[in-house]
Amino acid sequence: MESSAVLLGSKGLIRKHEFVRVIIQCLYSFGYQKSALCLEAESGISYKSSDFKLLESQIFSGNWYGCIDTINGIKGLTDDVRVSTLFLVLKHCLLEYSNCGDDASALAMLRKEAPIFHFSKDKIHKLAYSIFTSKDMNLDCSNDNVIHELRKKLLRDLEKTLPPPTCLPDRRLEQLVETTVMAQIDSCMYHNFSGAVSIYEDHCCGRDQIPTETIQVHFIILISLFIFSFD
């Protein structure tokens, strides 16, 4: 396992395990799954945190109470984020129960968990309403593929909701590079074009890129309007 104390860069401001994790995320997002898996194995660093891995296994197995316990055990979450995350899980759980005809389990879970989570009345009403409206979706609960895809969607929603280090912001490496490029463009005195710039070196336009020849002339015709008054 890679030590989290190893630092990178001349200033020692970058944690190596975070940097590698962001690279692995980038490889997965580009579709380079084999390369990402290889880097995970070689570095001992996983793209997914241990908390999220546990959540993933519990969600795919339908262990909803275990999933709730895991979310409650994640350290560093604000109350708002924790409530939002629990709401997503509970809403999905109710959807599955209701579509499978198990209204009793859906209502039992709602009565048991909603007061514990300190949901607002609005959220409780939405959850209760979802029990009845979800039946209109006509989901085939006997089809494992349908359930699997629904649970994958829940995981994607959780990834967007849970903050670092549990989950990473989407396309984090691209964001970091783009932010750096934009800062270089903003500080470039002679930058005068739009479009992509090379990231092979720091961006800096030379004075020779300033236009020095006239290629088009715009003539402005001034029209004077005289208003006569007989007063």
UniProtKB/TrEMBL annotation:
<keyword id="KW-0677">Repeat</keyword>
<dbReference type="InterPro" id="IPR006594">
    <property type="entry name" value="LisH"/>
</dbReference>
<protein>
    <submittedName>
        <fullName>WD repeat-containing protein 26</fullName>
    </submittedName>
</protein>
<dbReference type="InterPro" id="IPR051350">
    <property type="entry name" value="WD_repeat-ST_regulator"/>
</dbReference>
<keyword id="KW-0853">WD repeat</keyword>
<dbReference type="Pfam" id="PF23627">
    <property type="entry name" value="LisH_WDR26"/>
</dbReference>
